[in-house]
Specification:
about 200 residues, single chain
Length: about 200
């Protein structure tokens, strides 16, 4: 997922720190600090918010459903390939046994023909496995795009009333060391996402 925390949000946070420190030095009774070109009076909030990305993805029902579907398709693909490989291995073992006992009817020509057939079968299985892998990769990419497009659409709708200047992603081990919980909009956005997804499933 692309981080929504951009240079703009970094500048805003830097402005808060620097502005707050300088105002304390100049006067302990200052009523406002300059923030991003405007004023922030006591008790007001910054025009920023953050989303806990891991929590959002782990609890968004669309993401859950798409992940389960991908897991199921991957298991089915692996089962197909495993069955094909098991059949091939059995035929290969039979072939090797006949080679060792020199029991091919038709002699050398028949043995070489059978060897070519097995080589072609192995190549076909490998091609099929690669095709399935590519299909799964495409489905995963499409699922990723669908989830993120949905999140972006909901965020635009959500922010019409909230008017945040910056909405960024907060995940463990990032450069965001501390943000007050009041700027966390994860649950609000998650509720809207799941509501929208549930309504969409009902209309299908």
């Amino acid at each position: 997922m692309k981080k929504i925390f951009t240079v703009a949000s970094a500048l805003i946070m830097a402005g808060v720190i620097v502005g707050g420190m300088s105002s304390c030095v100049k006067s302990n009774n200052a009523d406002a600090a300059k923030v991003a070109g405007g004023t922030l009076t006591e008790g007001e909030s910054l025009p920023i918010a953050f989303i806990q990305a891991d929590s959002l993805y782990n609890n968004y029902q669309l993401q859950i459903d798409l992940t389960q579907d991908l897991v199921q398709k991957k298991a089915q693909a692996e089962d197909q390939v495993n069955k094909q490989m098991a059949s091939f291995q059995k035929e290969y073992q039979d072939f090797m046994q006949k080679v060792q006992t020199n029991s091919f009817i038709g002699g050398q020509a028949r043995m070489e023909s059978e060897q070519r057939r097995l080589q072609q079968k192995q190549a076909t299985i490998e091609q099929h496995a690669n095709a399935l892998q590519q299909d799964l990769a495409l489905l995963q990419s499409q699922a990723f795009d669908r989830v993120n497009d949905s999140i972006q659409a909901v965020l635009k709708e959500y922010n019409k009333d909230k008017n945040f200047e910056v909405i960024y992603s907060s995940v463990p081990n990032t450069t965001v060391f501390f943000v007050k919980a009041k700027y966390d909009i994860t649950q609000d956005v998650l509720d809207l996402l799941n509501k929208r997804y549930a309504e969409g499933k009902k209309s299908e």
